[in-house]
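Re: that chain you flagged

S.,

Sorry for the slow reply, it's been a week of failed gels. I finally had a moment to sit down with the sequence you sent. For the record, here it is as I used it:
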Amino acid sequence: MRSSRVTVAAVLAAVLAVAATACGTDVSGGPGPAAARFGQALARALNDHDVSGAANLTDSPDAAAQGIRATFDGLQATGVEVKIGQVRTSGATSVVDYEYVWKLPKNRVWDYRGTFDMESNGGVWQVRWEPTALHPNLGANQTMVLRSLPATKASVNSSSGGSILVPGVITRITLDASKVQAPTTVLEVATQLAQALAPVTPGLDPVGITEQATSLGRPYVVTTVDQKDLQKLPGVVTELPGVAESEQSDMVPTDRTFAPALMSSIKQNVQGRLDGTDGWSVIAQADTGAQVGVLTETDPKPKPSVFVSISPIAQAAAQAAVNTRTDKQAMMVVIKPSTGDILAVAQNPQADKMGSLATSGLYPPGSTGKIVTGIAAMEQGVADPTTVVPCPATITIGQREVPNYNRFSLGDVSMQEAFAASCNTAFAFLGNKLPPDKLHQTSASLGIGLDYTIPGLDVAGGQYPVPKDPTTKVEDSFGQGQVLVSPFAMALAAATVAHGGPVVPQLIAGQPTKVGGARDTVPPTAFDGMRAMMRAVVQSGTALLIGGEGDVYGKTGEAEVDGGSHAWFVGYRGDLAFATLIPFGGSSDNAVAVTKTFFDRYDAPVPSAPAN
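Prediction finished late last night. Pasting the structure tokens below so you have them in one place:
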């Protein structure tokens, strides 16, 4: 008998009306009341720990006590209701109908019906003890045991349906500085550990590891590795003083190179959506421990897979493209204009070290900001693609002298020609004619500067603040000044132009994006005009390099900053809108080249499976 008392939320001792049949038995002291007392005693046995109280109402108290106790323990029961039904008596024996309603862990309820026999011994009615008194299918030397049936954890799938995050096991590798004893130093251990982990986690800093491990006061997690990578590590890792490994269940990527920063963010967001409801069963178990049969079973209910908008083809192509730059940070965001689906978020390793730059890093847009100025000019009625504008080598507006790149001059040309050649002076001229708040309003219409809450993705919408003075307004008009954007924001602006209206970005199916901030409607004529100008950039302007990649519409940009310039290329082709950025990448040709690689990879035929 257990020594601790079991607390029960509610134990019912209600007994159904007892009916006696045959021979006109006097039920006041007959089998009916005796059966009722047995049912009440069973219910009390769990709450009051009075197993003997129920067992003593049987003809075999020791065997009954053992069976009742084993049942309570095996079911991990928190309560039971025993209902006594019809009693059929013939002479000194009776057959009693019963119903058990068990209360099991995790709010599970199990009920069933059966019968037990009673007999009169010297006028005293007792339950004839058999395991069937507890369950109709329970045999000799058997007991009932509750088993959990774990639900399979859901996977995270890409837009194509393939899994990108699946249930698995990771190993945490920790360093406990308190277990490193002199003459060995923590820095020496950290150095050896970083070297040992280099095949799977390159670039670990021994000094940084030492500082973290010595300051925490507890084991410091140096890295986590999946099972495949764990096999690549030398055995010396766990032999180092203070170094230990521990396993834990986690969602692991099917491909570690597939958008690692994005997968980490998605994993944190969907963790609570992947666990299904466990099933359960009650088995009949022999005293040898062997399972004899299943008495009841409730199937687990796994959650459906979570789908994200990321396209494996687009992501792989974008990742391959940004990885061609090994000297500078490089990043690319691809969005589907027709739906807002985020198809790719790619960063090369240099960018990954700095966080989610592709979606939340803010940079001046340079000449890609002329998309905003051009649409604003068309909305305001200042110009259309055919309007003649000046494009001198330099132009002075107020206190600001604005030069073109290498001070080129086109003379008087159409706005479309000025856009294709990326003429700063022409767009400074146009910007000066706009109301102070016009660029702010138009940028919001294109999705720039709004507040986005995208489950699973940290984003920054950028800013086009209302300029405080005429000089800033002029600088903003060609993407310098106070304006800042992220590659995500510029990809969204390009998607808006392609779509011809607002585009709401989306990453995780069933978790809609929240967009804060007001945006006006852009006239269709302004979108038409911008499309024509962006096509001219590729056909005859600054993005000739990508001319062979189909009907690409784009805008190049070089944003001047202290220490150099950022290389941009923003645009769309069909239902693919993109923004490519190489911080301090110099010429916009470099961003165009990365984008060209993206389309080369995206359009490459998929290798066919080898014949069997």
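What I noticed first: Residues 160-252 form one domain.

Talk soon,
D.
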